[in-house]
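The passage that follows is intended for readers who have already worked through the single-chain material. We present the inputs for a multi-component assembly, then the predicted structure in tokenized form, and finally a short commentary. You are encouraged to pause after the input and sketch how you expect the pieces to fit together before reading on.
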Amino acid sequence: MKRFLLFIILFPSWTFAQESTPYDSLPIHLLSEITIQSTSAEIDTLQNFYRANKSATTEDILARLQGVYLIRRGSYGQEPMLQGMSAGQINVTIDGMKMFGACTDKMDPVTIYVEPQNLEGIQIMRGLGGSKMGSTVGGTIDMQLAQPQLSSQRFFGKAGLGFQGISKGITSYFSGNYATNHSAYNFGFNYRKAHNYRDGHGQEVLYSQYEKINFSGGAKWHIGSDTLIANVLIDNGWNIGYPALPMDVGSAKAKIFALTYERDRCHGLVEMFRIKTYYNSIDHTMDDTHRPDVAMHMDMPGESRTTGIFGEGNLRRTGHHVISFRTDFYYNHVLAEMTMYPVGESPMYMQTWPSSGRAVGGLYIADTYSLSTSTKIKADVRIDLSSSSLDEGTGKDQLEVFYPNARSTTTQLAKSFNFSLQHLLGQSLITEIHGGYSERLPTLSETFGFYLFNQNDAYDYIGNINLKTEKSWSGDLSFSYFTKVLQMSLTGFYKFLPDYIFASVDERIIPMTPGANGVKVYENIPYATFAGADFTILANLTPALRFVNATKYTVATDNTGTPLPLIPPLSSITTLQYFRGNWNIQLEYEGAFRQEKINAGFGEDTTPGYAVMNIRGGYTFIKQKLLVNGGIENLFDTYYHAHLDWGNIPRPGRNIYCSLTFNF
Amino acid sequence: MKSFIKLLPILLLVICINACSDDESTFNPTEGLTRIGDAYALGAGTKVELWAKEDLFAGYNNVFVALYDSVGGERITEAHVHFDPVMTMTGGMKHACPVINPEDENAVLELFPGTVVFIMPSSDMGAWKMGIRIHNHRSEKEGTASFDIIVANPSVTQLKSFVTGTGEKMYVSYTFPEDKKVGVNDFEVIVYRMVNGMEFVPVEDYTILLEPEMPAMGHGSPNNVNPAHISGGRYNGKVNFTMTGDWRLNLTLNRGDETTQALFFDVTLN
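Having made your guess, compare it with the prediction:
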């Protein structure tokens, strides 16, 4: 098995070594071509706008992207969801690197460890290309790191300060880039602190504070067609409140190290490629010391370490084929512990994530075939081989209570393939039809989790070592229409997911957490179905006035027709942007319908619809060097919560914010 | 350098020999055990040593007997071993306690394992003396070694007794054959009836229900196996601990028309 994984890793480098006689060819940067970006022009605009609003967090930006939702448990640390799918169903990667949160309660999706200043962009990949970063049924969110830029300007950068009225929050940041002829270096710093915010009724929402600091650095050396890039990212958060959970986060620390080698204009079969090796670690501790009426104090530290390597690139164009590939390997190790301290009695210790690890090796190949100038066929295939193992010791001994004959190592295979046909009708209408099959591995939490308490349904969750992979048959149909004045896209999707992984009540097991309703154990239910649509429209009404609307809808049910939990209702955001000289002003209307398709077993209730209005503006001074942004969010101080907000914790009320950015 | 390479095989050989001889010398059957006492079994020509997993206490004790030839000192591995613990009270009254003698006349890993369930700790009220009767199969001679022992009163009781409706006095204790840990543990309950002060007989027909509980949290653990009678008053089951801490093992004993007996043992898992 190890030998097989090694083969996967070494295979592409072996092909690189077979370079034949040099001949001239135009380098085609296929990497950006094969990744199907939902970030179409109009969405890029919104993304750029939020990036321009320098006090926005990565989460704020994600929430505006097509098909992305956030599961909210606190004002920070929200969990991204793609078309109703989250956690192990989607890949969340940083520059293609795998990283896994260290919190058993999903308080630390890896998106919290990355600041917008660290990023070049966020890429959403669904359907074809979605499995490039790993086997998935829901797609990939890849956050691309901002790399040092080679530039004729020796030193440039920006610094800024932001203020949020509702939470008396401040943001300050600095980033700089230093370039020479063959090398470039960048450095970034970001600090945020927010106090409790107030809701639409003026009530303070306790435990909604957070504080964090982020450092990043990069170095790039460029010689001919070879580039070497080193990246370091260190993010420390502390005192992060989670009003919807019984505990807060004492500290959340992440370290990311990556070394990338890129070569373009290669000779021979492989035209360009890059190899990246990386290591990242997350240390996370939960904290109940600020909560009143804690029956029993608990320490809950968790750690996650991931080491990986991947190589990706594309082959030289042959005939009508453009073939790209990626091969990757990573090893993730997790351990989450819980020690409870009953008064006057012995401490109670258990491993909520038994000390365990998973090694995954995968191979991805995509081919684009041009049938004619207006018709393209694309296909991709991915195979992942994974080996999950429990370490000897307490964690394994614990699980034997449920699985007496547990094998310490299980091997699983995940396969996926996709096919799409893209056709250009006339000058301005693209139709695309996509079909595919994919599988995803159960997460370590779903496999080995041990009495993980879920506040939303008040059940203790237990993993299932016998879980099969979750499968997905999916189909999408999309129409994109674009002219200079009007851009529109409509995508409809349907997914049929056999062996859907879902936790069901097991009456035989008594819960561990005092006051819990019972115990749920993960299992493969016969199937679940997801369907939905995304619609976006961008209209340049006048050269100075632009109208944007993005509407998304998802519906999902299990095999009995019961709605799945955590599925958002029809929601939409409409923006009107006006530009004049150094001014820009933007009105936003953000809303969601009432959600009645709820899963009562998961503790959900009906969520009323809501609509909020935001107004934003910006002004640039001194030859675009100084930017002032400001605005009012939730203009009418509406009291509301969205369906994905746990515990029906109200969202912030009227928030006046401003920020100052200086470019140099 | 060359001479070093020539010397290398010799060096390796020396390391190997050292390693081998180390292995031989490390085998010690009483490693990890506590020495309780020793005496000569006069008449049997045998030196008797008593070892236990820990200092003796009121409850279920796993004990081990090591025998040596009293003259040559070599180990004896074939013998019949019989325990005769007796407590003499200050008033002169004497009583014994339940014992399970080594089943086999052949030693297991050079020791003779057995069980002694002390029903009372040593105190001002009375003192224990351990008698170990030996039938030395090598010399075919018999004799008894006798020495004083101290039986501690454990901080948490490991022995319970009750009287049935028909006036029978029962003693119940337990042991974990392996060190207890988080996870699945073998668990043994022992039930003996007192016939008179000097005679105890195993009770083999109880149905035992085992329910572990964590009083601090009010939860139990799943998939435990109720202790079922194996032999000689010993009931084997499995107890599952899902975490460390203070646990209570609730036992319910049923037998025919007898009133159900409920008792518990508190254990701490570190």
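Commentary: The two ends of chain A are 53 Å apart (CA to CA). Chain A touches chain B at residues 296, 338, 340, 342, 345-350, 394, 396-402, 404, 450-451, 508-512, 514 (CB under 8 Å). How closely did your sketch match?
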